[in-house]
Amino acid sequence: MTTTSKVRASGLPGAPPLPKRHKGGGTWAAWYLVAPALLLLAAVIGYPLVKAIYLSLFSDTIGGTSEFIGLGNYRTALTGDGAGDFWSALRVTGLFTFFSVALEVAIGLAMALVMHRAFRGRGLVRASVLVPWAIPTAVTSVLWRWMLQPEGIVNHLTGGSTLWTGSQWPSRAAIVIADTWKTSPFLALLILAGLQLIPDELYEAARVDGAGAWRRFRSVTLPLLMPSLMVAVLFRLLDALRIYDLPQLLTGGANGTTTLSMLVVQSSIQQTKFGYGSALSTLTFLIIFGVALVFIRFMGTSLLPADDEEGRTA
Amino acid sequence: MATTVHSHRRPVGVRSGRPMTARRPPSRVVRRRLATVGTVLSVLGIVVFCIAPFYWMIVSSLKGPNDIFNNDLWPSAPTLVNYRAVFSGENNFSYALRNSVVIAGTTTLFAMVIGVISAYAFARLHFRGKRLALGAVLAASMFPGVALLTPLFQQFSNWGWIDQYQSVVIPDISFALPLAIWVLSSFFRELPWGLEESAMVDGASKGQAFRLVILPLAAPGIFTSALLVFISVWNEFLIANAMTLTPAAQPVTVAIAKFTGSSQYQQPFSTQMAAGVVVTVPLVILVWILQRRIVSGLTAGALKG
């Protein structure tokens, strides 16, 4: 951006852009520097991931030794005794993800467009937008549970008498509403940053050519916003697919609101069925991984941190 | 720096059509007024949307047991009885607060030390395999927590670590690390590294150049990253809930969820609201003071300019 190049330029008047001496011999030094982080990630994220796959191949015999049963746990989850729970959790997770991400992107985009236009009250908007983000999800869940009580403020203000956490669809709606409240402001910030990258001249040009507001939005804003919008959607998608805190504390998984992550915790932690729980968590992981892969494939490689090298040498 | 320039930049499309409006028919003025009114109303809408539930949490926390269900938008007889209940013995809340400070503080410290070192390498050095390493860090942040929970829980149970800080802190560090590295390297990339060279030309050693020239410039970015990491750990629930069975190492997020009311069947909402205020208000104040930096940190992490 213009600001950074200005800072850089003032920093090194007439100096050569960047020293090259790190290129050859620096590789080892650089690897030493990143080693602690990579080793920690390998130990606490990489290893458990592999271990979970290994554990998932063994039976859960309470008190006895667990035996190797191959894909038995997966069979149980996909077609056996656990199939009902698993497919229901997958459906519920997919449902939450679809509706919350769609709503959050729509509301986030609308908020970002307003924030982009507003001169006065910018600080105020930015500060208030950060509030839902800063509140812990655990507190958000309890707060919405309170507001959605039968005699709570939401019913009071809307004049309704919905038993929000009492039956299936209201419970699901409650979770989507709370998630949307918590996350769309955050999305708005990401989208706003993307909006600010679009050069003003393009709008000028479109205006001179006689494009109206809607046309400018469709032909200038939206296409140029797409890259940052897609990154934001990808982050949100991966986040929504692993949703746990909110449904756990808002409905406790009652009335058809148990998500995949909740199912894993129930099996692994509460019932200490490590084999079966690992199978479920591996399935969850594969599903999320698959969605990410399809999304990145679909959207092109622009999402990968590839442009980093070019950014340094330019 | 960069952010102030941003905020002074005129937003797009507003009042920029001068050359075309030499004649300016009155309807256009009216339309512009309406547009301004529309923007102001939308801004108010956003503020209400974001603040209202938070406001309701504060109002509810100030209502006594007789008022709590009356839905008045203002507490008719504000009372601190709920706050007293929060810190009374049975909820262990002050203990949980201490746990949260210990867990989030330790995690932030470790994540920042490791994060600064590797972010320096990522932002400053060219090396073979950099993209691979950076990709691995990014990928690590996308793994679902539950995929790691079972083996970690089993391992920590075998080591007798359940209900001890390290069983929460160690996973938290590795969850926070990708965020820290990502945000820090984007901050570091913006630094005027040429000054380091200049200082060395003037006779400073590499260490001095880094310590005396670069570090003071990097401090705001490091502080912002630390705050982002701290908030993410402070708000963490899944790991903390799984690894703690008793209040011994329970942080506030878990403690609030487990508050017990006067009767088993009644959720103690007003106490929970008060506890929520205690947990949230410091964060909200910090965020308000540092909003510009936080926004640039958050968006740098996701967009990389």
Automatic annotation (TrEMBL), chain A:
Membrane topology: Multi-pass membrane protein
Transmembrane parts of this sequence: 29-50, 95-115, 127-147, 219-238, 274-296
Region listing for Disordered, in residue ranges: 1-22
Cross-referenced PROSITE patterns: ABC_TM1 (PS50928)
Localization, UniProt: Cell membrane; Membrane
Top-level taxonomic group: Bacteria
Signal peptide from the UniProt entry: none
Pfam families xrefs: BPD_transp_1
Keyword tags: Membrane, Transmembrane, Transmembrane helix, Transport
Domain ABC transmembrane type-1 intervals: 90-295
Family: Belongs to the binding-protein-dependent transport system permease family.
Record-given protein name: Sugar ABC transporter permease
Organism field: Streptomyces chiangmaiensis
Source organism phylogeny: Bacteria, Bacillati, Actinomycetota, Actinomycetes, Kitasatosporales
